[in-house]
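User: For documentation purposes, I need each entry recorded in a consistent format: the amino acid sequence on its own, followed directly by the corresponding structure tokens. There are two entries in this batch. Please keep commentary to a minimum and don't merge the entries.

Assistant: Recorded as requested. Entry 1:
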Amino acid sequence: MKTSVVWKEDVHFTANTGSGHTLEIDGNQTAGARPMELLLAGLGGCTSYDVVNILKKSRQDVVSCVAHIDADRADSVPAVFTEIRVHFVVTGHRIKESVVERAVKLSAEEYCSASLMLEKGGVKIVHSFEVVEAE
């Protein structure tokens, strides 16, 4: 896996991923996301991928899955994440809460490389979920 990051100006960078995608990164948030926001987005994408795949393999009729992520950072430099909270809102038809609970747990404890890497680095990650019946 490879990525290159090119400095544009001031605190603005462009990342080019090995899969051919481009992301704008900007410490001032004027031209792109802040680097630490991208870490949270990566975590959210990784764990959401797992949860949706597990739910689909479990034959759950999922129509939407949203991961709301918020985090606390240390007050001093380096301002690392100290706690991250991931809350899933899973919407579908007759979704079983026990299956969602299992999917979230499997992602957190076995599958999501981003979660596991951050936790090994000392970040506390709390997962929660709710199930909403689709109309």
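Entry 2:
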Amino acid sequence: MKSKQAGITLISFLLIAIVAGFFAFMAMKLVPAYTEFMGVQKAMGEMSSESVEGKSPEQIRRDVLKKMSYQYVGDDTVQPGDITIGKGDQSLQLQVAYDKDIPFIYNIDFLIHFEKSVPIQGNIASPN
């Protein structure tokens, strides 16, 4: 009786390991940016449940940045200019939009655009 071997060769195994390692390295670079964005979303959710009655847009930006720092969002990630307050369909909208540049390999970078908007309650003070 002849026995037949089954399985992969060493070269096939190395090829599969290289491809899996490449995607694992890519995930190690990208996952922190997405977890940071989850912190941004959580801070914005907290702001949408609070009233901003009588606050100036600058005070609202400071409050959002403070809440983001509690969520471990880096100071270099979201700048005050990335936070806008404007009129939405039904109420005021708080919007955060920023880009994250992540170095990958040699001269290859990932550029990820994050954007989120939530309704806020209350009326903001007029700028002086």
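Summary note for entry 2:
The helical segments are 10-49, 57-70.
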